[in-house]
Amino acid sequence: KDLATATKTWMKTTGRFVQDVTPKVSATIDETVEQSSEAFRKAVASIGKESKRFQVGFLRSYKTVLSKQMDFIEKRLKELTK
């Protein structure tokens, strides 16, 4: 009986935690993506005045950053789905 009660309590506590934390994490991710997109949009608009060589260098650097982020996401997904 004690185990059943403890299990129910744990499930309720975990459920409340997930309901409380998930929206906060989601909002943080959404805000971060939005800020990153806006920063990139502004950067691309401003580098349009620069030389092609500079633009190519900037875009390649940005591509590297995105690639590293994707690698991190893939690694994390693999860890979580083991």
* Fraction of residues in helix: over 70%
Which stretches are low in confidence, meaning pLDDT under 50 for 5 or more residues running? none
Task: State the order of secondary-structure elements, H for helix, E for strand.
Answer: HH
What shape does the CA trace take? elongated
Summarize the structure.
The chain has 82 residues and is an all-alpha fold. It is 91% helix and 0% strand.
Describe the structure.
The protein has 82 residues and is an all-alpha fold. Helix content is 91%, strand content 0%. The radius of gyration is 21 Å and the shape is elongated. The protein starts with a helix and ends with a helix.
Write the layout of secondary structure elements.
Layout lengths: L1 H46 L4 H29 L2
List keywords for this structure.
single chain, 82 residues, mainly alpha, 2 helices, 91% helix
